[in-house]
Amino acid sequence: MSNSGTVKGRRRSRRFLLGALAAALGTLVPLLLVEVALHFLPVTEPAYAQPVNARMPYLHFLPDRDVTWSSGWRFSIVTRKHVNNYGFTSDVDFVRDRASPLLTVIGDSYVEAWQVPNALTMHGLLAERLAGRGRVYGIGFSGSPLSQYLAYAELAHRDFAPDAMAFVIIGNDFDESLRKYKQQPGYHYFTEQDGELVLERIDYPGQSRAVALASRSRLAMYLRYTIGFDFRRVASRLRSLADAPTRFVGNVAADASAERIADSKAAIAAFLDQLPERSGLPPQRILFVLDAIRPELYTPADGARAEASYFGQMRRHFLTQARAGGFEVIDLAPAFAAAHALDGTRFEFPTDNHWNARGHAVVAGEIARSAVWSRTFR
After folding, report:
1. Could you tell me whether strands 164-169 and 286-290 are parallel, antiparallel, or unpaired per DSSP bridges?
2. CA separation for the pair 349, 248 (Å, rounded)
3. How many CB atoms lie within 10 A of CB 262?
4. Who is most buried in 130, 132, 135, 194, counting CB within 10 A?
5. CA dihedral 41, 47, 48, 52 (to 10 degrees)
6. CA 13, CA 2: separation in Å to the nearest integer?
7. First and final CA of the chain: distance in angstroms?
8. Domain boundaries, given as residue ranges, for the chain
9. 65-376 carries CATH number 3.40.50.1110
């Protein structure tokens, strides 16, 4: 090769490298600027779910810290939450104190309630209502179904010996109690053994190094948690574009096969059967708070159609079976409907179906009028 050819090759290589460097800088610099800017905005901070194993068999967050939580690309919901000594979202630490009557409220994200300050959750409002005459503890972790509630009931019974328990029941609590339908690490699920449903834990090793590293980036936290971007969810939606869109009622698929209905009823039966022993309480000391079908509740025609949905069927079956077993059940549909009729108030956020502060207030009021509450705090 001639010297001129060599020189031309070097020039092309240099231009390519300069172009690549310019492209990299053109991408990196804006990302760095966004990263810096997000440090001045209320981006969701990681709560750090802790490992679940034989030594610590219950899902909880890293204890004793304050966490900012936000939702929506414009931060439409922003809260500052305290995680207590047991790793649950509560402003009060959990202690064993037999001198003070205790109601423990157990549930999933509706009890965890990242969307509202701890003081405005149903358990926060109920504790304030007591004014020192008793205690109300809230144990909740997003994604928990009926089977996980049994595990938390055991935890409460073992460590706090509450005088009563209340459980918040929502649309996806039934089939997702079975490992057949969900297998997320860290949770307890029902599995069939010798014709019976038994509780089985799936251990969780904790966050991977990659996730822990990503949690240090405000941009990563903004994308993943504040606006809820998930590559797996996007890929799933792309794969399902050719299919008929799934209709949801109560945050769960509206249609259900006969097998799914039967499995869900079996999960309800196992839950109600095992609960007294695992909680250490008789049915008369246990309260269920059954969510309404929202937002269909606000339109009578939509509400009537929703009654035929999977959640509609499960609500009716759960209510009937629980009351037949001697448990008290609060059906939130009449309470929400009456409150909505007064002033048109809705009980969820425009961008989030969890209860807003008004919803939590209505729920707290209904619990305070229950027989279980009266027996616990005479």
Report:
1. parallel
2. 17
3. 11
4. 135
5. -160
6. 17
7. 99
8. 1-40, 65-376
9. yes
- Give the HSE-up count for residue 157: Cα atoms under 13 Å, Cβ half-sphere: 17
| 92 touches 127 (CB < 8 A) | yes
Q: 0.85 exceeded by the pTM?
A: yes
Strand partners, 198: 191
In order along its 378 residues, the chain shows pLDDT tens digits of 556 666 566 667 677 676 676 666 567 667 677 678 788 899 999 999 999 999 999 999 999 999 999 999 899 999 999 999 999 999 999 998 878 999 999 999 999 999 999 999 999 999 999 988 999 999 999 999 999 999 999 999 999 999 999 999 999 999 999 999 999 999 999 999 998 999 999 999 988 777 777 777 888 888 887 887 765 554 555 555 555 567 888 888 889 899 999 999 999 999 999 999 999 999 999 999 999 999 999 998 988 899 999 999 999 999 999 999 999 999 999 999 999 999 999 999 999 999 999 999 999 999 999 999 999 998
Structure-token pair, residue 195: 């014709």
**3-class DSSP state for residue 196?**
strand
Nearest Cα to Cα of residue 182 among 213, 143, 141, 236:
143
Bond before 350 cis per omega within 30 degrees: no
